[in-house]
Amino acid sequence: MQKNPIFVVLVSIVEIIKRKTINDPVYGFVNISGKLLTDILEHPKFQRLRRIKQLGLSHYVYPGALHTRFQHVIGAMSLGKIALENLEQKGIEISEEEKEAVCAALLLHDIGHGPFSHTLEHILIKGMSHERISLYLMESLNKDFSGSLDLCISIFKNQYHKPFLHQLVSSQLDMDRLDYLRRDSFYSGVQEGVVGQDRIINMLNVTNGELVVDEKGIYSIEKFLIARRLMYWQVYLHKTVVATENLLIKALERAFELASLGESLFAPPALLWFLKHQPNKNNFFDTEEGIKNYVKLDDDDIMSSIKVWCEHEDLVLSSLCKMLINRKLPKLEFSNEVFDEQRVNDLKAKFVENTGIKNEDSSYFVFTDSVKNRAYNIEAFNIKILFKSRETVEISQASDQYNIEALSKSVTKYFLCYPKSLHLPE
Predict the structure, then answer these.
(1) Does the CA dihedral 340-346-349-353 come out positive or negative?
(2) Of the candidates 339, 348, 353, 343, which has an alpha carbon nearest to the alpha carbon of residue 419?
(3) Buried b (16+ CB within 10 A) or exposed e, 126-155
(4) Reduced DSSP (H G I as helix, E B as strand, rest coil) percent helix, strand, coil of the chain, to 5
(5) Would 323 disulfide with which of 21, 44, 145, 328, CB 3.0-4.6 Å?
(6) Domains defined along the chain, listed by start
(7) Are 304 and 298 in contact (CB under 8 A)?
(8) How far apart are alpha carbons 188 and 167 in whole angstroms?
(9) Which of 16, 13, 14, 19 has its CA nearest to residue 38?
(10) Verdict on whether the full-model pTM lies above 0.85
């Protein structure tokens, strides 16, 4: 049956003016318009981000930090729209198609995140980054959308001839970082993360095709870099957050070990697939079954399993899960030096004596590792200041603050984690 031409025209008009409005507690009303962006917003793979917490298990320390990846990418996209409009007002040529593609890339840049975001990133799929999965899912969605994401993917992969568009999506001064610092500060209540994102965006400019910052914005960039460092040590790498997330990691590692030995474990079907197949970065994309199960996974699958595993007959798994569910968290010590091996062994020996858990399983409860933080990576995309003379100077050289250069150095802290019931002299 042939469709009425008038009906076809009306449908096309509706698709063009299709619009969603989201009331964001950080920025106010955010408008999303056009068929492509609203189709992304409504897609089940995108809606999954509502069920993935932005800050993993940070709410164990900051109870308000329950916001999601969905909220974050909406915020990043809204900042991207403002940045594009400001650049256009400064005479930078940006087409409507390019604007839409940048907004799509900002919406999709985190679509590959798994349960609890970074916490389980290399646990469910050994060695696999969420960026690689994000790109795979973008290409998959591009097939569903008949190639409408071609430009978006080109910008995301930094293969487009205007590098500043990619830098708005992924760089050391991108909309992703501007949003998560402001948003994570808002929900955690940690004021050190508050940055003047409006002023920073207003100071953005483009020279030689690359994103730069007008000279008047140099102090805002300095504050942005310092805020990023403070947020890492005060929120993202807070010692109790690190202890809690490692407790979850250890519980999943034990579940994977038991599954590999043929033990029966409760889990929702999607998680059960991962326990059974235990994929890695080299074989995960070999079949479609893996990604189909991955996009069904969210925080609820993990926590529902953890609750049931509290009653598992394996003492190691049940103990780890009970500690997590009841917030009986281990003690964590930070150090600038590697911990003494003898002290670690003494703690393990005392733990085995107190609990009866086998010595070979003590490393699930007493262990060492390290965390790293670098607020500004001078070796990657540099933040450049544009002076009135049109000269561009890298921020650490342009700033009169000596600590900006110090922020470019990678800081490693070692940690020792063990149950609080153990009391041995250091």
Answers:
(1) negative
(2) 348
(3) eebebeebbbbbbebbeeebeebbebbbbb
(4) 55, 10, 30
(5) 328
(6) 5-236+389-409 (1.10.3210.10), 238-328 (1.20.1250.30), 330-374+413-426 (no CATH)
(7) no
(8) 27
(9) 19
(10) yes
- CA–CA dist 309, 315 (Å, integer): 10
Q: How many CB atoms lie within 10 A of CB 85?
A: 12
Rg (CA), the chain: 24
Say which residue the tokens 């002290």 belong to: 343
- Which residues, in sequence order, are CB contacts of 33 under 8 Å at separation 6+? 17, 18, 19, 20
Residues paired with 29 in a beta bridge: 23
Encode 101-134 in three state secondary structure. HHHHHHHHCCCCCCCCHHHHCCCCCECCCHHHHH
Q: How many CB atoms lie within 10 A of CB 373?
A: 17
Per-residue confidence of the chain (426 residues) as pLDDT tens digits? 555 555 444 444 555 568 999 999 999 999 999 999 999 999 999 999 999 999 999 999 999 999 999 999 999 999 999 999 999 999 999 999 999 999 999 999 999 999 999 999 999 999 999 999 999 999 999 999 999 999 999 999 999 999 999 999 999 999 999 999 999 999 999 988 888 899 999 999 999 999 999 999 999 999 999 999 999 999 999 999 999 999 999 999 999 999 999 999 999 999 999 999 999 999 999 999 999 999 999 999 999 999 999 999 999 999 999 999 999 999 999 999 999 999 999 999 999 999 989 999 999 999 999 999 888 887 777 899 999 999 999 888 887 665 676 777 888 999 999 999 875 444
Question: What does the block give as tokens for 222?
Answer: 């300095």
Q: Where are the beta strands (DSSP E) in 84-240?
A: 204-207, 210-214
CA distances from 386 to 120, 207, 258, 303 (A): 40, 8, 57, 49
CA distance 206 to 353: 64
Q: Could you count the other beta carbons within 10 Å of the beta carbon of residue 218?
A: 22
Sequence length of the chain is: 426
Angle (CA) 259 264 269, round 5°: 80
Bridge partner list, 207: 210
